[in-house]
Amino acid sequence: MKSYVVTGIGTEVGKTVVSAVLCEALKADYWKPVQAGDLHALDSDFVKSNTSETTIIPANKLLNHAMSPHEAARLDGIELTEADFDLPRFLKQTIVEGAGGVMVPLNDAGLCYIDLFQLWELPVYVVTKHYLGSINHTLLTLNALMSREIRIAGLIVNGDSNAASERIYHSHFPDLSITTIPEINEFSKESIQQAAKLWIEQLH
User: Fold this and answer.
1) Averaged over 63-72, what is the pLDDT?
2) How far apart are CA 26 and CA 10, in angstroms?
3) Which residue ranges run through the membrane (predicted)?
4) Residue 31 and residue 98: Cα distance in Å, rounded?
5) Is 97 annotated as a binding residue?
6) Hey, which of 36, 45, 94, 185 has its CA 20 to 30 A from 30?
7) How many other C-beta atoms can be found within 10 angstroms of the C-beta atom of residue 36?
8) Element (H, E) at 29
9) What is the four-CA torsion angle of 6, 10, 13, 19, rounded to 10 degrees?
10) What does the pLDDT read at residue 24?
């Protein structure tokens, strides 16, 4: 069994929804090391409520302000370091969700999420969504991961596929696995289960 990191090409592309779908599809646990803001509605709560048997690994840091983790931590009077992000010793098959994109900073000393991905040595699923500018954001993210020799498990499109965009991705990364998860309008265990089933079917 493998664990995976889920990252996005930016904010609001559906990382938590995709994480829930992957947890359901793979019967995996879920861990989001840092939650910044919205502490009354944690991403882990969403995943727990909309999956059938996912075990939630508690976040290492809960920050009070909905902003970049490095600044949210500073406002809370703490500094995040690599030592805060050791993979849990009891890690089994787990979906590890990042925040924002690969270059989101965790402290003022230059630590970014991509540094953690490299440290963890887990394959990474990149979540994208088709919008004007998404090709640029997607290629930048994929290239950043490749430059660090971080394994890319695949590109997951949240929403409808777009052949014109995906043709470009394959021109740069011929072996890239591209799958889609249909955009979900009403979240429930049933809708996540259905999306998980459709995602699994694309792997064969």
Assistant:
1) 94
2) 24
3) none
4) 9
5) yes
6) 185
7) 24
8) strand 29-31
9) 10
10) 97
154 a known binding residue?
no
From the candidates 2, 27, 32, 189, which is the catalytic residue?
A: 32
CATH number at residue 126: 3.40.50.300
The reply, when asked if residue 184 is annotated as ligand binding, is yes
Write out the residue range of the structural domain in which residue 61 sits.
4-201
> Greater confidence, 91 or 119?
119
Give yes or no for residue 89 having a pLDDT over 90: no
Residue 79 is which amino acid? E
| Coil, helix or strand at residue 135 | helix
Distance, CA of 42 to CA of 44 (rounded, Å): 5
127 is in an annotated binding site: no
Annotated catalytic, 129? no
Can you read off the two tokens belonging to residue 89?
A: 């010793």
Q: Which residue has the higher pLDDT, 152 or 185?
A: 152
Q: How many residues in total does the chain contain?
A: 204
29 neighbors 56 (Cβ within 8 angstroms)? yes
Number of domains the chain is built from = 1
**Model pLDDT, residue 100:** 87
pLDDT tens per residue across span 126-170: 999 999 999 999 999 999 999 999 999 999 999 999 999 999 999
17 is in an annotated binding site: yes
Residue 202 scores a pLDDT above 90: yes
Residue 110 backbone class (left: φ over 0; alpha: ψ -120 to 50; beta: rest): left
How many Å apart are CA 204 and CA 55, to the nearest integer?
Answer: 27
